[in-house]
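Weekly sync, protein design subgroup
Attendees: M.S., D.O., the rotation student, P.L. (late)

Item 1: inverse folding check
M.S. brought a backbone from last month's batch and wanted to see whether the design step gives back something sensible before we order anything. D.O. pointed out we never logged the input encoding, so this time it goes straight into the notes. C-alpha coordinates as presented (238 positions):
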Protein backbone atom coordinates (compact mmCIF):
# COMPACT_ATOMS: atom_id res chain seq x y z
CA UNK A 1 0.00 0.00 0.00
CA UNK A 2 1.39 3.47 -0.95
CA UNK A 3 0.43 6.59 1.00
CA UNK A 4 0.13 10.09 -0.49
CA UNK A 5 -0.67 12.82 2.01
CA UNK A 6 -0.44 16.51 2.68
CA UNK A 7 -0.72 18.51 5.85
CA UNK A 8 -4.27 19.75 5.20
CA UNK A 9 -5.69 17.19 2.77
CA UNK A 10 -7.18 13.73 3.28
CA UNK A 11 -4.64 10.91 2.99
CA UNK A 12 -4.80 8.73 -0.11
CA UNK A 13 -3.81 5.07 0.08
CA UNK A 14 -3.09 3.19 -3.17
CA UNK A 15 -3.47 -0.58 -2.82
CA UNK A 16 -1.42 -3.08 -4.82
CA UNK A 17 -4.42 -3.69 -7.11
CA UNK A 18 -4.53 0.00 -8.07
CA UNK A 19 -7.61 0.91 -6.06
CA UNK A 20 -7.50 4.22 -4.22
CA UNK A 21 -8.77 4.75 -0.69
CA UNK A 22 -9.21 8.25 0.78
CA UNK A 23 -9.14 8.56 4.55
CA UNK A 24 -9.84 11.80 6.41
CA UNK A 25 -7.31 12.81 9.07
CA UNK A 26 -9.77 12.42 11.95
CA UNK A 27 -10.71 8.94 10.70
CA UNK A 28 -7.03 8.03 10.46
CA UNK A 29 -6.40 9.21 14.01
CA UNK A 30 -9.42 7.25 15.21
CA UNK A 31 -8.09 4.16 13.43
CA UNK A 32 -4.68 4.60 15.03
CA UNK A 33 -6.26 4.98 18.46
CA UNK A 34 -8.37 1.85 18.00
CA UNK A 35 -5.22 -0.17 17.21
CA UNK A 36 -3.30 1.02 20.27
CA UNK A 37 -2.95 -1.36 23.25
CA UNK A 38 -5.44 -0.65 26.03
CA UNK A 39 -4.05 -0.25 29.55
CA UNK A 40 -6.01 0.24 32.76
CA UNK A 41 -4.28 2.23 35.53
CA UNK A 42 -5.75 1.64 38.96
CA UNK A 43 -4.84 4.96 40.61
CA UNK A 44 -4.60 8.58 39.53
CA UNK A 45 -1.63 9.49 41.75
CA UNK A 46 1.10 7.36 40.18
CA UNK A 47 4.16 9.44 39.16
CA UNK A 48 3.57 11.16 35.82
CA UNK A 49 6.97 10.12 34.43
CA UNK A 50 5.83 6.50 34.06
CA UNK A 51 2.27 7.28 32.98
CA UNK A 52 3.57 9.51 30.15
CA UNK A 53 5.46 6.55 28.65
CA UNK A 54 2.21 4.62 28.44
CA UNK A 55 0.14 7.59 27.23
CA UNK A 56 2.49 8.11 24.27
CA UNK A 57 2.02 4.52 23.05
CA UNK A 58 -1.24 3.25 24.50
CA UNK A 59 -4.86 4.07 25.03
CA UNK A 60 -4.97 4.44 28.80
CA UNK A 61 -7.86 4.55 31.23
CA UNK A 62 -7.05 5.94 34.68
CA UNK A 63 -9.25 5.25 37.67
CA UNK A 64 -9.98 8.72 38.99
CA UNK A 65 -11.91 8.87 42.23
CA UNK A 66 -11.78 10.25 45.76
CA UNK A 67 -11.01 6.68 46.76
CA UNK A 68 -7.31 6.03 46.12
CA UNK A 69 -7.73 2.37 45.21
CA UNK A 70 -10.27 0.99 42.75
CA UNK A 71 -12.90 -1.23 44.43
CA UNK A 72 -12.83 -4.88 43.32
CA UNK A 73 -16.24 -4.75 41.63
CA UNK A 74 -15.17 -1.77 39.50
CA UNK A 75 -11.82 -3.38 38.75
CA UNK A 76 -13.57 -6.46 37.37
CA UNK A 77 -15.59 -4.27 34.98
CA UNK A 78 -12.62 -2.14 33.91
CA UNK A 79 -10.47 -5.15 33.00
CA UNK A 80 -12.67 -6.32 30.15
CA UNK A 81 -10.91 -5.77 26.80
CA UNK A 82 -7.66 -4.48 28.33
CA UNK A 83 -4.22 -5.59 27.14
CA UNK A 84 -2.35 -4.64 30.32
CA UNK A 85 -2.93 -3.62 33.91
CA UNK A 86 -0.96 -1.08 35.98
CA UNK A 87 -2.10 -1.72 39.51
CA UNK A 88 -1.16 -1.16 43.14
CA UNK A 89 -0.40 -4.16 45.29
CA UNK A 90 -3.33 -3.27 47.56
CA UNK A 91 -5.68 -4.70 44.96
CA UNK A 92 -5.92 -8.47 45.31
CA UNK A 93 -5.11 -10.28 42.06
CA UNK A 94 -7.13 -13.42 42.64
CA UNK A 95 -8.74 -15.99 40.37
CA UNK A 96 -11.82 -13.80 39.91
CA UNK A 97 -9.71 -10.91 38.64
CA UNK A 98 -7.70 -13.11 36.26
CA UNK A 99 -10.88 -14.67 34.83
CA UNK A 100 -12.47 -11.23 34.38
CA UNK A 101 -9.43 -10.10 32.39
CA UNK A 102 -9.87 -13.00 29.96
CA UNK A 103 -7.32 -14.33 27.49
CA UNK A 104 -6.39 -10.87 26.24
CA UNK A 105 -4.36 -10.05 29.37
CA UNK A 106 -2.42 -13.31 29.14
CA UNK A 107 -2.63 -13.95 32.89
CA UNK A 108 -2.93 -17.35 34.53
CA UNK A 109 -4.04 -18.05 38.10
CA UNK A 110 -2.14 -20.73 40.01
CA UNK A 111 -2.39 -21.84 43.63
CA UNK A 112 -0.04 -20.53 46.33
CA UNK A 113 2.12 -23.66 46.68
CA UNK A 114 2.66 -23.94 42.92
CA UNK A 115 3.62 -20.27 42.81
CA UNK A 116 6.26 -20.81 45.50
CA UNK A 117 7.67 -23.85 43.71
CA UNK A 118 8.01 -22.02 40.38
CA UNK A 119 9.20 -18.57 41.46
CA UNK A 120 12.76 -17.26 41.38
CA UNK A 121 11.73 -14.24 43.46
CA UNK A 122 8.97 -14.33 46.08
CA UNK A 123 7.97 -10.73 46.86
CA UNK A 124 5.48 -10.19 49.68
CA UNK A 125 3.33 -7.05 49.30
CA UNK A 126 0.00 -8.23 50.73
CA UNK A 127 -1.74 -6.66 53.75
CA UNK A 128 -1.52 -8.27 57.18
CA UNK A 129 -4.85 -9.97 57.90
CA UNK A 130 -6.06 -13.00 59.82
CA UNK A 131 -5.60 -14.95 56.55
CA UNK A 132 -2.02 -13.83 55.89
CA UNK A 133 -0.59 -13.74 59.42
CA UNK A 134 2.24 -16.27 59.67
CA UNK A 135 1.49 -17.64 56.19
CA UNK A 136 5.19 -18.11 55.37
CA UNK A 137 6.02 -21.14 57.49
CA UNK A 138 8.86 -23.68 57.41
CA UNK A 139 6.72 -25.77 55.07
CA UNK A 140 6.30 -22.88 52.62
CA UNK A 141 10.03 -22.09 52.59
CA UNK A 142 10.77 -25.76 51.92
CA UNK A 143 8.65 -25.56 48.74
CA UNK A 144 10.76 -22.78 47.26
CA UNK A 145 13.72 -23.19 44.96
CA UNK A 146 17.10 -23.30 46.68
CA UNK A 147 18.04 -20.36 44.44
CA UNK A 148 14.94 -18.35 45.43
CA UNK A 149 15.18 -14.81 46.80
CA UNK A 150 12.55 -13.92 49.44
CA UNK A 151 11.60 -10.23 49.75
CA UNK A 152 9.16 -8.81 52.30
CA UNK A 153 8.06 -5.18 52.05
CA UNK A 154 4.62 -5.75 53.59
CA UNK A 155 4.48 -6.61 57.32
CA UNK A 156 6.82 -8.69 59.45
CA UNK A 157 4.07 -10.77 61.04
CA UNK A 158 3.20 -12.32 57.66
CA UNK A 159 6.36 -14.39 58.09
CA UNK A 160 7.19 -16.99 60.73
CA UNK A 161 10.53 -15.35 61.42
CA UNK A 162 12.15 -18.36 63.12
CA UNK A 163 11.34 -20.45 60.06
CA UNK A 164 12.91 -17.80 57.83
CA UNK A 165 16.08 -17.78 59.94
CA UNK A 166 16.24 -21.59 59.66
CA UNK A 167 15.71 -21.46 55.88
CA UNK A 168 18.50 -18.91 55.44
CA UNK A 169 20.98 -20.61 57.75
CA UNK A 170 20.46 -23.99 56.12
CA UNK A 171 20.41 -22.67 52.52
CA UNK A 172 16.84 -23.87 51.96
CA UNK A 173 16.48 -20.58 50.07
CA UNK A 174 19.33 -18.45 48.73
CA UNK A 175 18.72 -15.09 50.36
CA UNK A 176 16.23 -12.61 51.79
CA UNK A 177 15.67 -8.86 51.66
CA UNK A 178 13.50 -7.51 54.47
CA UNK A 179 12.11 -4.00 54.82
CA UNK A 180 9.81 -5.19 57.63
CA UNK A 181 10.43 -7.49 60.60
CA UNK A 182 9.04 -8.46 63.99
CA UNK A 183 9.71 -6.46 66.09
CA UNK A 184 10.86 -3.21 64.49
CA UNK A 185 13.63 -2.42 65.01
CA UNK A 186 15.15 -5.84 65.54
CA UNK A 187 17.43 -6.32 68.54
CA UNK A 188 21.08 -6.00 67.57
CA UNK A 189 21.72 -9.61 68.55
CA UNK A 190 18.85 -11.04 66.46
CA UNK A 191 20.03 -13.87 64.13
CA UNK A 192 18.79 -12.06 61.01
CA UNK A 193 21.18 -9.17 61.68
CA UNK A 194 24.28 -11.35 61.43
CA UNK A 195 23.34 -13.45 58.39
CA UNK A 196 25.39 -12.79 55.24
CA UNK A 197 22.48 -13.77 52.98
CA UNK A 198 19.95 -11.37 54.53
CA UNK A 199 19.69 -7.63 53.78
CA UNK A 200 17.68 -5.46 56.19
CA UNK A 201 16.28 -1.94 55.72
CA UNK A 202 14.31 -0.03 58.40
CA UNK A 203 10.87 0.09 56.70
CA UNK A 204 11.95 2.82 54.26
CA UNK A 205 12.81 0.65 51.29
CA UNK A 206 11.42 2.92 48.57
CA UNK A 207 10.74 6.18 50.38
CA UNK A 208 12.40 8.68 48.02
CA UNK A 209 10.84 10.66 45.18
CA UNK A 210 13.52 9.42 42.79
CA UNK A 211 12.83 5.77 43.63
CA UNK A 212 9.06 6.16 43.29
CA UNK A 213 9.50 7.82 39.87
CA UNK A 214 11.87 5.07 38.73
CA UNK A 215 9.48 2.37 39.98
CA UNK A 216 6.67 3.89 37.92
CA UNK A 217 8.86 4.28 34.82
CA UNK A 218 10.12 0.71 35.10
CA UNK A 219 6.58 -0.63 35.43
CA UNK A 220 5.54 1.32 32.32
CA UNK A 221 8.56 0.00 30.38
CA UNK A 222 7.72 -3.57 31.45
CA UNK A 223 4.16 -3.13 30.16
CA UNK A 224 5.30 -1.69 26.81
CA UNK A 225 7.92 -4.43 26.31
CA UNK A 226 5.39 -7.17 27.09
CA UNK A 227 2.86 -5.64 24.66
CA UNK A 228 5.58 -5.60 21.97
CA UNK A 229 6.50 -9.22 22.69
CA UNK A 230 9.99 -8.18 23.83
CA UNK A 231 12.04 -9.01 26.93
CA UNK A 232 10.95 -6.89 29.89
CA UNK A 233 13.73 -4.61 31.24
CA UNK A 234 12.99 -5.77 34.81
CA UNK A 235 12.63 -9.45 33.97
CA UNK A 236 15.06 -11.39 36.14
CA UNK A 237 15.90 -15.02 35.41
CA UNK A 238 18.17 -16.98 37.75
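Designed sequence read out in the meeting:
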Amino acid sequence: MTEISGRDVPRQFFHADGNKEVVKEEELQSLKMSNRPKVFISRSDYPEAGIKLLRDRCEIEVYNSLEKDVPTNELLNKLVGKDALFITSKNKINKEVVEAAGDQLGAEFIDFDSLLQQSDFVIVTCPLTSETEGIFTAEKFSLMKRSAIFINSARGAIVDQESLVHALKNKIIAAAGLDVMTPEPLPKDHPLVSLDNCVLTPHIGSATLETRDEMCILTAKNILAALDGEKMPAEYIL
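Discussion: The beta strands are 2-6, 9-14, 20-23, 38-41, 59-62, 84-86, 121-124, 149-152, 175-178, 198-200. The longest strand covers residues 9-14.
Action: P.L. to compare against the previous round before Friday.
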